[in-house]
Structures are given as structure tokens and as C-alpha cells.
Amino acid sequence: MAQSSGAVAPGLSSFLASLKTTPVEPSIEHLISLLKRRQIRNSRPCAVATTALLLRVVGEFKGKNSAKLVDRIRQVGKRLTSAQPREVVVGNIVRRVLGLVREVVEENLDVDTTATSDVGQNAPHSDALHRPSLHSSISTFSPLKHAAAEPHEIASFPEEMSDSGELVKRPPLLSSHTSAAPMVNSLFGLFSQPDTPSTSNTPTGHQSPDSKAMLTSVNLERLADFSSSKFDMKAEVMDGIRELQDELDQSDDLMAAYALDHIHANEIVLTHTASTSVQKFLLAAARKRKFTVVHVETHPHDHHATHSALLTGKKRDGHEGEDEDAWKPLRLAGVRVVMIPDSHVFAIMSQVNKVILATHTVLANGALVAASGARMIASAAKAHRTPVVVVSGVYKLSPVYPFNTEELIECGDAGTVVPYEDGDFVDLVDVENPLYDYVPADLVDLYITNIGGHAPSYLYRIVADHYRTEDITL
Amino acid sequence: MPPKGKKGQPTDKSKAGEEEREEPLQAVVLADAFETRFSPFTLERPRCLLPLANIPLIEYTFEFLANAGVEDVYVYCGAHREQLEEYISQSKWASQVSSPFSKMELIQSTSHSIGDAMRDLDTRALLVGDFLIVYGDVVSNLPLESALNAHRARRQKDKNAIMTMVLREAGTRHRTKAQSTNPVFVVDPTKDRCLHFEQMPNKEQTHFLSLDPTLLSDHQELEIRQDLIDCGIDICTPDVLALWSDNFDFQAPRKGFLHSVLKDYELNGKTIHTHIVNDHYAARVRNLHTYDSVSQDIVARWAYPLCPDSNLLRGQSFRLQKGNIYKEDGVVLARDCIIRSKTVIGRGTSVGDGTVISNSIIGRHCHIGRDVTIDGAYIWDHASIGDGCKVEKAIIASEASISRRCRIEAGALISYGVHVSEGQTISGENRITRAKRKREHGEDLPRGEPDPSIVGKGGDGFEYYDSNEEDEDEIVDGLISRGPLYNLSNLALSAESISTLNSESEDDYEFSHQRSEAGSFVSVGSVDSHASQHAHNFDHDAAASIYDSLIEGHESANIQLELTSLRMSTNASEHQVRRAVVVSFVKRIIQLIGSGSNVRDAVAQVFGQHKDLLTRTMFDKNSASGKVDQVDFMLLLQADLASRENGDLVLLTAATKLVEMDVIEDDGMMEWWENPKSKEGDDMVKVRGKTQQLIDFLSQESEEESDEDDEEDSD
Q1: Least CB–CB distance from B314: residue in A6, A155, A412
Q2: What is the spatial distance between Cα B180 and Cα B232, in angstroms, rounded to a whole number?
Q3: Which of A150, B193, B362, B424 is deepest in the core (most CB within 10 A)?
Q4: Domains of chain A with CATH codes
């Protein structure tokens, strides 16, 4: 009786377990409600849940038309992101999967029709062509804003709505693209461009936001032909998603591999929150070197997790399975760990050699959204000229551009800051309790991802590598 | 028992056959609390569909249950079943695809109290294992895991631990707590066992708590707590239902059930436990006052993640802005209107120039004109407010329209579709509605005549006023209890300010005020005016049934049984029982006389056969001081006969017979004679004229007795 009662509350583990047996549509609804109810939260669980769900969506997808598959994934993605726009990672994963589908399709196209002129035109995925348009579309559109702008249509039915909804919002994008297009197309297209945009196969504004996007009609027809022949698009996409899952699994270890390059003997390192990535990163360095970690408590959101992470190497009691394996606590690895309250950060900063931050999301401009307290730490570090290193998996890197930083920041339960029991206080005082901080790019010196270390100003490049332009607005 | 890792999944049905499925966690939602605290709104809509921060109340309850991993949900509906059914069937909770519940069933009951509902539930035998009982108005983000685990652990050890109540700690003064009545829990903290429960002020209207001395000797530690918010979340075992059934007079779960079960611990040996939490949010929207405070809590994010910007409802798109302002897409704001903090504005609402809105919740598609000031108001969907209005802490329901330059003072309730014409001031104690009474199944809503003195001339002429001064038929109808139930401004101040209200006599107001916030449940004690809803039914039914029985010559005991059950089910008072008995007896006597028998025989026949029945209606036989019940009985008899032909003669005969049978004692008869009420009015005096003989005789007798006594004494 009692033994089974441990897992009453739904969460990531129950979701993953149910995914095997439930059909797709209920699973999507299930994830949406879990996201809304905040029973799955934080980047990694969201990412894991989203990939698992998308794997299922692709697996159940019938038919071989890739454009339809793209549409389907997009639909699901829209519903998920509108359910919880602040979990940017969900959108990231959806975009990655969309990119995956397109890649699979194009690869096969390339193989099949090497010599046609279409491919020649289709090929210019060179970065030179890509980047300007990417940038402009990011800056005109925050997917977050866009997604949040019309969840009703999304919920109540995307198929027809999505196109018309986009059409309404399209004009600014169109103009920004067409203005960019002549530049890349050189002067030849300067005058012909506005009249006959579809004649050229370059990703002009007219096409790119369309759901069919890069897959122009010509390509699609061809694809339809040959998809019936041999290549199994679905299997390849699913393989790709599994790779994505592996990436999620391994990103911590990959990042940890860079630890020795950044942490030196006898350094004093300051960090906060009980982030698995950071803990593993430090642990990897501790195998070879002796150093001191100053751990900020992160009251009131994360202090329980921080305490238990420091003591036992487990994030939270009772949440087994949710944050995968436990690790050896730092202090047992021979690292001296000092825990300080958040208020002491500035005082101790002069002693610190390096600040290592975990993050919730990294934005395209190099800024980050991290657990509250991060901005204070980063500012203190700036004042003391202490380098700030952010450890973050690539999956947290988002093409979202922060126009309205307030919107990215979630406000939490006021009850964790002040006791709800205090009736008079509750009556008279309004409490705001932001769960995250926005840390501008200029406060960060280095990002360490699973593919290496990068300067904040270079992040846009990684964004361009990982996300397709046409997927940026979901 | 919930299977591990399988909780709250969308389609548990598909896996129902799987091996590891054990008993699912079940929940009963009491959608109707059998109260009228939200009238006049509840005349047209069920209470659990009233919007709280633009989301129907019951959504919060379902969210809570989904959070807790409940699988089977039974919704107990009372009034407005069809509306609730329609709503649920269209919501995400009923659809196979999106519902986290594997079963969602609506139960219609004819019950008039929670107690009846519970007994009904017991007979249905739907619940197999441990289950939750919640109201359709619980707002909570509490994870129930620990409470459930604690309950199960206790249950394994001791089969008699039948119930666990989840209580939220709050300070001594808190806006979300019940204000004038305080539940007091006596808890043994070592075992989390609840030992005693009392609702203050208690039945005797005192503030004294009397504890059984054995509690003090049996338990090393005792906590007497009144700082708890009782959010009505109970984890029960089926034994609880059995207990309800055994005690068919229990009506209210706390005042009745809990109080008695704890008191009779020696008898039944069942223990009830508490699970006191000091984090997370848990509250019930039990009256309009808590409606206000829970709304504020939600907007201020105390109930996170149950916030407007979580968009719990399908198709909602609220976004949070600085200062707890929540706006949905498609809100049209004029350029120079000012939206202050703690405001929620729904889709399609337009706000005019120069309007200032603060601390308010405004629904969808509302129209708000220019230069309007709205502070602390609750405005539901499709309402319109004209230019230059001033709205304070009031509730304006859907489709109501307020014309220009009106003033809605704090505490006013404006129900569905009401139209207030230009320049009118609605004062705080007004509750304006268009519906005369509850909507019956499929029937059109009856509408009353408009009253221009309240909504002004030129109002559409459809308005009906439910303010306490006029509106007598409403009270006879028994749907709305008297007095302003809701007066936010007064409640927000203190008890003193209540007395400054000029609307009603002091007592009446005091009473209704207390009612409005009185604990959670229909109280058994304060029957007379508040149970008027059932009173009318009872009078009619009981009188008819006794009369029929008399004609058919049923036995006294059978009539008695029938009468008792009727009384229990309608929660009628002793007075009403007596009235019913008197009315039916007199009717029968008159009938017998009419059919030719003489008065004496008729009386003897009717009264003589049913001595038991008569004695059971009066309970003060042995009390030395005053014969209140007997006097009451005689008064009723007298009043009833006053309008009858030959009433005086019948009264004399009946009174003689009653004294003869010793149903009414001599003292009782004398007391009645002296009672001023028996001399009120010509009819009354006339009808009792002949009975003078009896009284003379009785007084003579008693004099003789006292003479004898004297003599004896002198001897």
C-alpha cells in the first residue's frame, strides 16, 4: 500500500512512463498541463520531456510528406510553447527537431539530384547568406512574443489559423527581408526582386516564414516522388531525435571535459544554485586539482536543493529519477566548500578568482536568464573585474532576442519570500518574487557549452548553426 | 491505491486492465454547498461556475485534484445541474484526450444538505478505497502526497483512523480565514489526532470551549488551535460514509459530523486526524468575503502557479506585467486611461479615455466608458459601464449594464443582465437581480417587475430588486435569506461599522451578517430563518402527510416515524413540527364535525388515538421553569381555531381533552392563558372565550390543592 504512494504527484518521470503507453494526442495535452501546472519545470526536464514527446509525434506520424511532418511538429511546438512561454527550452528543442527534418530532407535531395540547377540555388546555406537575414528576423520577432500573442488560435485550432495569423503579422518581416535580399543577391536582382520574388530560389522573405519554407514547391514534388521509393525519412528523423536525446544526456559530461582548462589549482571559485551541470563541471576539475568553492545559497528558491546538493550530491529528496543520477558531493572530492548567504556575495567577491554560473536559458544576444541572484553576482564580479563563466548546454541556447526582459522572467509564489500566515502583512504589502534574473551579455565573459568555450559575442554564430532561420518564428 | 508512476495520466482507461493497477485515488467534489451565500448570483448560475479571476471556480478544484494525482472524480451537483453538466462536458476535464482523470461522473442528488449527500453516496457504493472530499470551490496548490502518505501509514497501523483533514496554518488574523466564526481544533500534536472540534461561537452562542477532562488526562500534549484555515479537504475512508449513514441527523461535516464523532469517541472508537501544512496555498471560496480575499491572493500570486497568467483555461492568454497587472490579448485601452496594479483585464474589453482602474478584475468583452473610476470591483464578462461612473468594491455580473454617471458603492451586488439607468446611485447593501427564483429545468427565467427607485427610470423595465427592504415574496419563496449577505466595505472594517447600517433592525442584520460568514456549513442550530428554504416545504408536506394518515387511521408510531424522517430531511424545527401536527389535527377534527359527529367525540377520537404523537412534540414536561413548548402548542392551536367555525367550542373541548390526557399540564395551560400572545387581536380573544371555564376549573383545582397543602402544613 504505502510503497506505491510515493509517486502520486505527476512529474517528468510519470510523464515519460506514460508516454510509452498513451497515444500521442493525450500525451501532448498531458505535457501541456504539466507545463502549465509547473510540474515539469527547469530547462533539462522540459527538454527531456519535449524530445521524448516529439520522438513519439514523429513516430506516430503517418505518411511520407515531409512538409506535413514539419507542419505537424510546428503545431505541437506552438501548443507547447504557448502553454509555458517562459520555458524557452521547449521552443529550442522544437526548432532543433524542425531543423533536423529539413536537414534530412535536403540531404536526400542532394544525394538524389546532384546536378540540377535547383540544388545550386537551394544550396546557399552558406553563412554569409544566412546570417544577415537571421539577425533581422530575430530582431523583428521574438518567438516568445509571437507565441504568447496568439495562444488562443493555437489552442482552438492551428491548421487554418496559423497561416492567416502569420499573414497578419508578416509585413514587417517581409519588408526587413526584402531589404536584406538585394544585398545578398548582388545588384542583379535589385530591380527585379520586388516584382518576381518567387522566381529566385533564395530564401527571400516571401518564402521563409511560410510553413513550407525552404522546401519549395519544386522540391516537395520531387520529394513526394522519391520518398515513395527508398529513403525512410521518418526513421532518419527519429534517429536524429535520438541523437538529440544523447546530446542532452551527455552535455554535462562534455562540458565537464573543459573544466581543467578553466579551473586551476588553488583558485577560489564562486557559484550558485544546485545546477547539475556546474556541480559536474567542478567535480571534473576536482579530480586533478585542489581548489575552493564558495557556494551561494540562492535563498529562497533553491536553497533546499543547494543544501542537499552540497551535503549529499542529490538535488532533492523524493525527486529520484527526476534529476537523473546523484553525484559525489564536492566536499568528498577534496574540494573545500564554503557556503555563504546571498547577501555576502559582494563582500567575498574580492577573494574570488572566477565566477561560474549555471543558467536557465541563454539568449541570442549573449545575455542569459538565470536563477535569481545571478545578476547580483555578475554585477559584483564586474565591479571586481572577476571573470564570469557560464556553463550551459547548447540546448539552452535560444534564438530568442530579449526585447522585453520582464516577459522572460517568471514571477513565483510570493509565499516563499514572506510567510502567508502573517495576515496583516499579506493585506498591506504586495510581494513580487521573480524566479529568474536577466543578466546582460556584457556581464558575462565566457560561455562553456558542450561544443567548447565561446565569447558572448560569438553566440549568434552557434545559434545560426543550430537553428534554421525559417523555424525561428514557430 | 495509486499505482506508482502512473498517476494523473490522460488515459488511464487504456491501462485499466493492467496488472499493477490497484485502487485508484478517487475524489468527490461537492459542487453545491447547499447554501445561499452567493445569492443573487446563484439564482441563475451554480456557485461553482462563478468566475474567480476570470476562471470558473470549479476549474481550480479540478486543477487541485489533477495536481494531487486523482483519477476518478465524482461531482455532486445540487442546483443548476444542467448548466454544470454542460460546462464540464465542454471543458477539458471531460474529454478523453486532455483530461487527467480517467473517470468523471456527475451525480445528481435531491439532497438538501451535505449530510444527505454523504448518505446518498454511501448507498451508491461508488467509492472503494480512500478518497478525497473537496468542495467545488477549493483553491489550492498544495501537493497532497505527504498528507496521503501520512493517512495511509496511519491507516495501516490502525483501521480506526478514518479521516485526515488538511488544514492550512494562518495567523490569528487573516483575510482568507472565516471572519466571525472561528473553528477551534484541539489536536494531539504527537499523533496529529484531532480530539475536539468546536465552531465559535458555539451553539449556545458563547465563546467558551468545554473540554472533556479525560482529554487532558489521556494526552500528554494538547494544542488548541484557532489559527487554521479549514479548506475543506478531507481524506476519507469508506468508513466515514458508513458513519454518516449511521447518524442520519448529521447535516454539516464540521459542526455536525466532526464534532459528534469526536465527542463519541468512546462509542465508535474512530479517530480523525489532522494534517497541518504551513506552506503552499489552500483556501475555500465559501462566501463573498472569501471570494474577495482569494481573488486578491490569486492576483498577488500567493497561489502560484494558479495565477491568471498560467492560463489554466483553454484559450486564455493572460500575460503578466509589472505590478501584477494581467492583460489578455485584444484588450483595447484608450491612450490616456490608467491601469493601476493588481488588475486583471480579459480579452476584448475596451477601456475609455481618462478611466482609472485599480485592484479590479474585469472579465472578457466588457465595455468601460470614459472617465470611469473602478477600484476593487469584480466585473464579469460582457458587462458594460457607462461614462463617468464610479465603481467601488462591488460585483457586477455578466451582461449587466450601468449607464452613465452612476455610482456603485462598495458592497453592492449587481446580478446578471441588470440595467441601471443614468445617474443612479446603488448603495452598498443593494443586491440587484432580475431573477425571481431559481431556474428550474428547462424553464424560462421568471422575471420580476423593475423598481425605478433603485435602478432609476428608463431602465429597461426588466429589473427586479432584491434589496432587503422590499421584496417580501422573495423571502416567502425562501430562496434568499434576509439581510445583506455581502458587504465588503463593512467586513473590511470591523464589527462596529455594522451597527451603523440603517437598513434593518439590529438583530436581523447581526444575524444575517453572521450567517454570511458563519463557518462553512449549514448549521443545524440556527434553523428558523435561514432554513426558510425548506421550511415551507416541510410545513406543507408534513401537514398533508399527517392528515392523510389520520384519515386512514394509521398508528401513532408510524405517523411519528414519517414525521421524524421528514423533519430530518428538511431540517425543520420543533416549532414547525408542532405547527404541522396542530394544523392537520384541527383539519381532521373540523372534517369529522362537518360529517356529523359531535365536537366532543371528534376531539376525543383524533386526540385520544394519538397521545404519543402529541407528547413527542413537546419536550418540556419535566422542566420546572416555564412550559415553552406547551404554550407554543396551545398558541398554535388557538391561532388555527381562531379562523374556524365553532372554534371556541373546539378549543375548549380540545384543551380539556389535552389536560385530561396529561399532554398539556395544568401549569402549561395556565401559562398559555396568561401569555400575552394568546390575548392579541379580537379573533384570539373571542376564540378563547369558552375556555375560560376550563381555566377557572383548573385554577380552582390548584387553589384547592394549595389549600390542602396549607391545611396539611398547618396540621
Answers
A1: A155
A2: 18
A3: B362
A4: 9-249 (no CATH), 257-471 (3.40.50.10470)
